[in-house]
Amino acid sequence: MKRLSILGSTGSIGRSTLEIAAMHPELFDVVVLAAANSVDLLSEQIRQFKPELAVVIDETRAGELKKLINGTGFDGIKTRILFGDKGYEEAASYGGADMVLLAMVGAAGLMPALAAIDAGREIALANKETLVMAGDIVMSRAREKNVKILPVDSEHSAIFQCLEGNRQKDFKKIFLTASGGPFRTKSISEFKDILPEHALNHPTWNMGSKISIDSATMMNKGLEIIEAVHLFDIPVSAVEVLVHPQSIVHSMVGFKDGIVMAQMGLPDMKAAISYALSWPKRLEPGLNFPDFAAMENLVFEKPDHEKFPSLGFAKEACRTGGTMPAVMNAANEVAVKAFLELKIDFPAIFKLIEKCMELHNSVDSPDISDIIEADAWARKTLKLKIEN
User: Fold this and answer.
1) For 301, which DSSP code?
2) Dihedral sign computed on CA atoms, order 113, 115, 116, 120
3) Is the pLDDT confidence value at 202 over 80?
4) Non-local CB neighbours of 140 within 8 Å, separated by 6+ positions
5) What is the number of other CB atoms lying within 10 angstroms of the CB of residue 301?
6) What does the pLDDT average to over 152-165?
7) What is the DSSP secondary-structure string of 85-143?
């Protein structure tokens, strides 16, 4: 029985994880649930899974949650309620958990990830920003504590599976696939007319709002480039992005003899989640195989860097290193939020990220305080630009 702490339980990854846990009650016991604001859904999850601990973003939400679970239908449930940064860090380091599934969105996942590592908890990582911001620190500390970090992103899970059973010295290249998002065929001249509802309408994946916008700008793939560099200890030059609109090939690995191994499956996150939860075994999450005979073709294209400069930003940030990836990530989070709130147009997302990176003097070999300071600087800088 594996005891799970799920941070981000009300998001798409968290909900899918709980579906898998419910399918296999003999294998998983959910002992911690953590969310931000969705107290109604979190209360229903508490009713179903009866965790020992639940965490929300602030004291107000904690009060709302306590009222809900003191109501009818929660008899016998003794879930402890915490809130805020200290609550999330306790959820990540909780002594009753064996594995932490980290599915919080954005920079909020970094400190809980470090808390989980310091506590020796195995991590199923769905928060790519943790490695984007502080990949060297996180991976170094994980090695020091002998903590396994298992990827949950479908692309990195695919790479992980392709590499298993092969020698690291035979590795040559990663082909990181991208759907291309909803604007793959749209001309750059049309970008100024894009509204949030257009960007949220992803053609193949069902994701939360922030990740959906990141997919539309291809920043999601940029973040995944940096994540892959740290997860698999490879140079950024060994990562090539390919646009694959069918989202059947989740990524590929090339070896020195010219052989390429691909991992394929339907675009459903349950496959990657179940593999991270059960590794080195496999579960049955209730998914079918792709219907290959019904497919006309599988398309691969080079990404358009002019339309989607996020890929270039990510590679530049990765090559620069230091605090630059954290600044790029923070700038993206602020710009995406402003776009969703109709404060800026779609092309301004790219312009703001680029400007913030130009203004930043990167700190080499940063510690966590340097990274947090750089993150705060980027957020403050861009918010002032947007407001003025």
Assistant:
1) B
2) positive
3) no
4) none
5) 12
6) 96
7) HHHHHHHHH-TT-SEEEE---GGGGHHHHHHHHHTT-EEEE--THHHHHHHHHHHHHHH
DSSP letters, 139-191, are HHHHHHHT--EEE-SHHHHHHHHHHTTS-GGGEEEEEEEE---TTTTS-GGGG
Decide if pLDDT at 211 tops 80: yes
C-beta pairs of 70-73 under 8 Å, 24+ apart in sequence: 73/47
Distance CA 76, CA 278 (A): 30
Residues 142, 220, 276, 166, CA torsion sign: negative
HSE, side-chain direction, 13 A CA sphere, residue 379: 13
Closest listed residue to residue 196, CA positions, set 186, 178, 206, 182: 182
- Count Cα atoms within 13 angstroms, Cβ side, for 161: 26
For residues 53, 270, 173, 299, the Cα torsion angle rounded to the nearest 10 degrees is -150
DSSP string, 46-73: HHHH--SEEEESSHHHHHHHHHHHTSTT
Whose structure tokens read 């994980």? 142
Task: Give the containing element (helix H, strand E) for 275.
Answer: helix 270-278
Task: Extract the tokens encoding 228.
Answer: 């892959």
* DSSP-assigned letter for residue 194: -
**Residue-level length of the chain:** 388
Least confident of 65-74, 80-89, 238-247: 65-74
CB-based contacts of 364, cutoff 8 Å, min separation 6: 321, 322
Q: Give the distance from CA 304 to its chain's centroid.
A: 23
* Contact criterion met (CB below 8 Å) for 366 and 110: no
Q: Is the dihedral of CA 7, 131, 106, 197 positive or negative?
A: negative
Residue 374's H or E segment, with its range, is: helix 368-387
Predicted pLDDT of residue 105 = 87
User: Looking at the predicted structure, is the pLDDT value of residue 205 above 90?
Assistant: no
C-alpha distance from residue 207 to each of 158, 204, 213 (Å): 18, 10, 10
Residue 50 identity (one-letter amino acid): K
Q: What is the pTM of this model?
A: 0.94
pLDDT digits (tens, 9 = 90+) for 105-142: 889 999 999 999 999 999 999 999 999 999 999 999 99
Query: Tell me, what's the pLDDT at 209?
Result: 86
